[in-house]
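PROTEIN DESIGN WORKSHEET
SECTION A - STRUCTURE
LENGTH: 201
TOKENS:
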């Protein structure tokens, strides 16, 4: 039986998550202090440590729903057998990230959260692993599957980080170019009558 969480604990954590996300839109994560989070949430500083070990643990928990939503979109996007044309799910991923541009820039930037990046990498690698297993590449714990899943996850995070850059337009055409770059040797793999397929590195 699932242990019921005290409603007061839920309210406190909700206030803390909202406060740290609000602060993260105002400054870099490494510049946020627990004291500031407590003040923004109108909670005693000592109380924060009753729920979270440190600021990064709080940040990661606050972003968990966002990450779960992103992982769900990744699950629908073919990242193993790549169609030549950009799948709609890939554009959905980029639009999802854009909906919280500031937060993703903060979390993935040079002053961001290593725990967040590691968690995102883990979630993407898990989804790619499922796709690799479904494609018959091997078992989930096979070295080849693990290597390819983590390689694809790293490429995915790099692509998302670049997409968030202000130096290029965030158009559907730009997304299509990003999809081509995501494939092996700088271009998405083609599929001709089911005879040619390609996989991520």
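SECTION B - SEQUENCE
RESIDUE ASSIGNMENT:
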């Amino acid at each position: 039986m699932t242990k019921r969480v005290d409603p007061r604990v839920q309210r406190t954590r909700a206030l803390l998550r909202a406060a740290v996300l609000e602060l993260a839109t105002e400054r870099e994560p490494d510049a946020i202090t627990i004291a500031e989070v407590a003040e923004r949430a109108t909670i005693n500083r000592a109380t924060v440590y009753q729920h979270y070990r440190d600021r990064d643990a709080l940040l990661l928990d606050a972003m968990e729903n966002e990450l779960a939503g992103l992982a769900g979109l990744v699950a629908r996007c073919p990242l193993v057998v790549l169609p030549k044309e950009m799948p709609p799910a890939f554009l959905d991923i980029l639009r999802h990230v854009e909906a919280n541009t500031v937060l993703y820039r903060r979390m993935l930037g040079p002053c961001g959260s290593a725990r967040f990046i590691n968690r995102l990498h883990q979630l993407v690698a898990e989804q790619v692993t499922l796709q690799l297993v479904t494609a018959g590449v091997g078992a989930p714990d096979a070295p080849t599957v693990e290597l390819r899943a983590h390689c694809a996850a790293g490429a995915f995070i790099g692509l998302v980080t670049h997409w968030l850059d202000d130096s290029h337009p965030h158009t559907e055409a730009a997304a299509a170019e990003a999809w081509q770059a995501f494939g092996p040797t700088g271009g998405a793999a083609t599929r001709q009558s089911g005879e040619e397929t390609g996989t991520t590195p």
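SECTION C - NOTES
Residues 2 and 19 are 28 Å apart (CA to CA).
The domain at 7-62 is CATH 1.10.10.60 (Arc Repressor Mutant, subunit A).
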